[in-house]
Amino acid sequence: MTSDSRGQSKKLALQETEAKAYKERIWKYYLRKNVVPIFFIVLCFFGGYYSGLSLPFLINEIITRMARNSFLVISLIIPILAGMGLNFGIVLGAMAGQFGYIATANFQMAGFSGFVVTTLISIPLSILFGWLTGKLFNQAKGKEMITGIILGFFANGIYQLICLYFMGNFIPIRIPTMLLSTGIGLRNTLDIKSMHYALDNLWKIRINIPGLIFPIIIPVFTLLAVAVLCVAIHFLIKTKLGQEFRAVGQNRHIAEVSGIKVDKIRVIAIIISTVLAGIGQVIFLQNLGNINTYGSHVQVGTFAVAAILIGGASVSKATIGQALLGTLLFHTLFIVSPLAGKNLIGDAMIGEYFRVFVTYGVIGLALALHAWQARQKRR
Amino acid sequence: MTGPRLEMKNIRKEYFGNKVLKGVNISVEPGEIHAIVGENGAGKSTLMNILFGMPVIQSTGGFKGKVLFNGEPVPSSSPEDAMALGIGMVHQEFMLLPGFTVMENIKLNREPTRPNLWSRFLGSKMETLDIQRMRNDAREALDRLDLGIDEMLKVAGLPVGFMQFIEIARELDKNNLQLLVLDEPTAVLTESDADTLLETVKRLSEQGISILFITHRLDEVLKVADQITVLRDGEQVATMSPKEATVGKLAELMVGRKVQAVTRKDNCETDMECSEPLLSIRDLHVEMPGEELHGVNLDVAPGEILGIGGLAGHGKIGIANGIMGLYPSTGKIILAGETVPLNNPVAALNSGMAFVSEDRRGIGLLLEDSIEMNIIVQAMQSQGKFLKKGILQLMDFEASRKHSEKMIKDLDIRCTGPEQLTRRLSGGNQQKVCIAKALTLEPKVLFVSEPTRGIDVGAKRLVLNLLVELNRKAGVTIVMTSSELAELRSVCDRIAIIYKGRLEGVLPPDDSNERFGLMMAGALTHHMKEVS
Ligand SMILES: Nc1ncnc2c1ncn2[C@@H]1O[C@H](COP(=O)(O)OP(=O)(O)OP(=O)(O)O)[C@@H](O)[C@H]1O
Ligand SMILES: [Mg+2]
User: Fold this and answer.
1) What is the spatial distance between Cα A4 and Cα A128, in angstroms, rounded to a whole number?
2) What b/e sequence results for A268-284 when a residue is b if at least 16 CB atoms lie within 10 Å of its CB, and e otherwise?
3) What DSSP character marks residue A209?
4) How many whole angstroms separate alpha carbon A202 and alpha carbon B43?
5) Comparing B314 with A318, which gets the higher pLDDT?
6) Out of A239, A246, A257, whose CB is closest to B127?
7) Which ligand is the nearest neighbour of the Cα of B425?
8) What is the 3-state secondary structure (H, E, C) of B141-196?
9) What is the pLDDT of residues A121-172, one digit of tens each?
10) Structure confidence by residue, pLDDT tens digits, B40-61
11) Pairing relation of β-strands B293-300 and B279-286?
12) Measured over all CA atoms, what is the biggest interatomic distance in chain B, rounded to whole angstroms?
């Protein structure tokens, strides 16, 4: 009897210590899993404090950037699910968006209808580009990311050829001010003032917070578009197609053996991603109001990729939450780092350098980590 | 119905000039259980891959010959076509997605869906998954196999035995199933589970489903098969009914020579009392799903072969997995007087222990590397073997070649040479590479789980003999886990039986069948327990 009860209490004590150890392990696990976003949250608070920016200004700026960038970042999710890694090929989607604007600017469209037509023009182009990208990726299975980066450079060359040589030459441009003085090739900056804020200004809510000078401005429809996209992606994951993405993402061979058309699914994933990126770029540019013809698309891939990684996504795993959090953190850093650098060290360039360093550092780290994990798995 | 369900006529197949099938003819009637036996590398899986339209066949130049299904020529150029015809296959290697739940795997690409607004415009691919029905279907298929596992569990981390049943459940769930191919389904199962499986197979055949059944367990073949085809080196050496066959005859046909049955080695007693234990296991708890351990105390004497037996699900597999740090565990491990940290695979390896996992199909091999590389890589990296002296640490090609050639010979790995990629080996030969890899580490203690699983009768003896030789000549202490009691009894000095996650007792190998059986069922009373 006594030995029994002693055994009982010993068992209980053991259970208690086990539970404690378990809790500790869980805690550590989450900390380790989310170390990247946690690091950047701390960094953002720190930078925000030293930037000396007022809170409402910061909030407004963050809302603007969330509204115009989230779409591009979310466009990366599907290829990650399908096991194709970070789709650097979204640069082609951005180009499709810009072609859309070139067309509508050429026909002097304006306002919301111009924005809608631009989007509609970008979609078939994106589908074409996505299809080609997907086909290419199927030839380079397992090396999609590097292929995507190189494809971006290559496509940029063709883009330049079209814009610099074909436009005004083979492709008639009706608005002379769009062209260089020679009459051939587009100018460096393309003015789309007529469609500036076409989506943002549909409905803007101004919230006056007593005690603050600036109101907080919310571009309802742009944020709504992002929200709709989030719901759509969430829905898509729960469909048959979504299940196939996930299956292909885990193991192409097994997916194929169970009858899933792996190559087709991969092409679809890239098409969806490219189309979303195209729309994302259209939304992005209506907020800016002008296009840097030869530059606006160049950084789209790297910035979106850096953002989603900062949100805690990896090459093989990403959620909508991570995409949104990443956009938030990445662009907060964008806003505060030059000023914080100036205030701390006396040079805005330092903050700028730091930001660039962080962008590429995060991408490099993620890729290295991925390679390392893949090797660990092989062990 | 008239006519055979499946006919394969004069099937020939070459892999890069290597003829692996040389004109095989098979005919299967509705409801027939047709067994295919043969040595490792005889071409059994290749034949089935042809039937199922596996991509590997097309990508290596297709095959010659005719396949007729219900009298119609089969267009089987893809698994999808084969499935549409009603052919199901459980592959030799695992075909489960580890990140998916059991039910997602069972319903993979056959998910029931519900139409929604979008699917009306964009096609059926946009239909929502009907999770509830997926669960129900999966549950039903699992129940048909008497598998009480939670269908919402992730497959990753489940013990191999479960995975095998999940795959069979997946095939059962296909409602147009007419022909089921099982490529070594019982290789990963314990004897009792294998019996359950054979029962199921019989039941299915009574429902009119034809079964093609590959196995290395010849007694199973005699028990359930209606027809037996024997392959040797790609040639069909015989097709007969089990009435004409005996295990000995089959083995002889397979190997082309007489095979010694697995027999007990010359008894040599280890004196347990006087020697200090080499390895002490104290209060070992292991959280291995389905094979949990709840506090095991066990001592392993230097130079012995300790067997670990027990029924599936009672935790015998958990011991080695826990000690080697593959599953979360608590307790204390003392190896030659030093405590080995748990939950740390690297430390376990460095302390002089090595492990041949029971899950050789899933892990352990670099499929895109050569046999030689696979054999030496771990020893090279963790022990600096096969490296030339000097700062550059160049690889010693000569030594590594010599060693791998010896291993290939000792284990009878059927290959074109040490440079062959492991991907191009048959399943059984891949497993031999895994064993060679662990032997190369020359550990103080070698854990082997199911060493002869998936290995043909001829090679079985080789593997067991090699273990004994390693133990006698090189003095390696071996802890061998196996679900085949006969195998344990033939090589071990002592056999520990695990029951419900605890050590039930230790028996000498020549104890009676009855006492082994009782102990495995937890029915041998306490006073019988040996204090260790
Ligand atoms: N993908 C491949 N490329 C080249 N050769 C291969 C390939 N797959 C198998 N082989 C070769 O074909 C032969 C037959 O292999 P197969 O897998 O059919 O054997 P098996 O009878 O299933 O043997 P086991 O019992 O070991 O599973 C072997 O010699 C193997 O080396
Ligand atoms: Mg095989």
Assistant:
1) 75
2) bbbbbbbbbbbbbbbbb
3) P
4) 69
5) A318
6) A239
7) 1
8) HHHHCCCCCCCCCECCCCCHHHHHHHHHHHHHCCCCCCEEEEECCCCCCCHHHHHH
9) 999 999 999 999 999 999 998 889 999 999 999 999 999 999 999 988 888 8
10) 888 999 999 999 988 889 888 8
11) antiparallel
12) 80
Suggest the residue from B125, B129, B357 to mutate for an interface test with chain A (most A CBs closer than 10 A).
Answer: B125
B46 CA distance to ligand 1 middle (Å)? 6
Residue B39 CA: which ligand is closest? Answer: 1
Structure tokens at B504: 């039930």
Q: Do B45 and B214 meet the contact criterion of CB atoms below 8 Å apart?
A: yes
How far is ligand 1, taken at its centre, from the CA of residue B63, in Å?
Answer: 14
ipTM of this complex prediction, to 2 decimal places: 0.83
Tell me the residue type at B457. V
Whole domain around residue A154: which residue ranges?
A: 55-298
Residue A173 inside a domain? The answer is yes
Q: For chains A and B, count residue pairs whose Cβ atoms are closer than 8 Å.
A: 65
**Most confident option among A111-115, A208-212, B470-474:** A111-115
Q: Whose CA is nearest to atom 7 of ligand 1?
A: B424
Q: Tokens in use for B402?
A: 């010599």
In this complex, the residue of B100, B104, B113 whose CB is nearest that of residue A240 is B113
Q: Where are the beta strands (DSSP E) in B455-517?
A: 477-481, 494-499, 502-507
Q: In what order do the strands lie in the sheet with B179-183?
A: B87-90, B179-183, B210-214, B33-38, B227-232, B235-240
Cα of first residue to Cα of last residue in chain B, in angstroms, is: 63
- State the amino acid at position A321 in one-letter form: G
For residues B292 and B329, what is the distance between their CA atoms, to the nearest angstrom? 10
pTM for the whole structure: 0.78
Report if residue A113 sits inside a domain.
yes
Ligand 1: residue whose CA is nearest its atom 24:
B40
Q: How many Å apart are CA B60 and CA B18, to the nearest integer?
A: 11
User: Nearest-CA neighbor of B217 among B192, B240, B185?
Assistant: B185
Q: Nearest C-alpha to atom 22 of ligand 1 is from which residue? A: B45
Structurally, chain A folds into a number of domains equal to 1
Q: Cβ–Cβ of A378/B98 closer than 8 Å?
A: no
Report yes or no on A340 lying in a domain.
no
Distances (CA, A) of A306 to A36, A71, A328, A364: 12, 14, 12, 9
Q: Are B45 and B427 in contact (CB under 8 A)?
A: yes
Is the CB of residue A47 less than 8 Å from the CB of residue A333? yes
Query: Is A334 within the bounds of a domain?
Result: no
Q: What are the structure tokens assigned to B154, written together?
A: 């992730």
Name the closest residue on chain A to residue B378, using Cα atoms: A379
Distance between B180 CA and the closest CA of chain A, angstroms: 14
The separation between CA A362 and the C-alpha centre of its own chain, rounded to angstroms, equals: 14
Amino acid identity of residue A216, one-letter, is I
Under the phi-then-psi rule, with left for phi > 0, alpha for psi from -120 to 50, and beta for the rest, what region is B251? Answer: alpha
Ligand 1, residues at Cβ distance < 6 Å: B 15-16, 20, 38, 40-46, 56, 60, 92, 414, 423-429
Q: Which residue has the higher pLDDT, A375 or B157?
A: B157
Question: Hey, CA dihedral for B170, B78, B20, B364, is it positive or negative?
Answer: negative
